[in-house]
Write a structure and sequence with these properties.
By secondary structure, the protein is of the alpha/beta class. It has 6 helices and 6 strands. Helix content is 38%, strand content 17%. Helix 3 links the parallel strand 4 and strand 5. The N and C termini lie far apart (50 Å).
């Protein structure tokens, strides 16, 4: 992963989720390629590497690459429901915004799907893309949105519910 941030305490969970998906014959799409750089800077020299090559030492994965954009966009185009939580890269810095903006275009372009975007960064990205009006539902509560979809009770909603 080069200098990319890695939550070491989540690696085993990720492996378990991948195995779970495989055992249940659930397709789980992971990035095929990455845009990398030594630092988060608009002037940084970037390169695209495949997942198989890995992120070079001294570099960080800062966006998804063109193969991933194409694969994700194709999947989104055929979806009936899209739940998007989290940008594809460091969209606030131009060289690392393409993946997020292209995914925003794909989500907005699937007019037959119900699209739900959750989380402050994702919401900011959708607004930056100028496509927010083409999304079915936008929620700044990313974690809460995911918990709601998971079936958990949300304390704020429960407090407003008549008992």
């Amino acid at each position: 992963m080069g200098k990319s941030l890695v939550e070491e305490d989540k690696v085993e969970l990720a492996k378990s989720l991948l195995q779970d998906a495989k055992s249940k014959n659930v397709r789980l799409l992971l990035p095929l390629d990455h845009v990398t750089a030594e630092k988060i800077d608009a002037a940084a020299k970037t390169q695209t590497v495949t997942t198989d090559e890995g992120i070079p030492a001294g570099q960080m994965g800062l966006d998804i690459g063109p193969k991933t954009i194409a694969a994700y966009s194709k999947e989104i185009a055929g979806a009936k429901t899209v739940v998007w939580n989290g940008p594809m890269g460091v969209f606030e810095v131009a060289p690392f915004a393409k993946g997020t903006m292209k995914i925003a275009e794909a989500v907005a372009g699937n007019r037959g799907a119900i699209s739900i975007v959750g989380g402050g960064d994702s919401v900011a990205a959708v607004h930056q893309s100028g496509l927010a009006d083409k999304i079915t539902h936008i929620s700044t509560g990313g974690g809460a949105s995911l918990e709601f979809l998971e079936g958990k009770k949300l304390p704020g909603v429960e407090a407003l519910t008549d008992k």
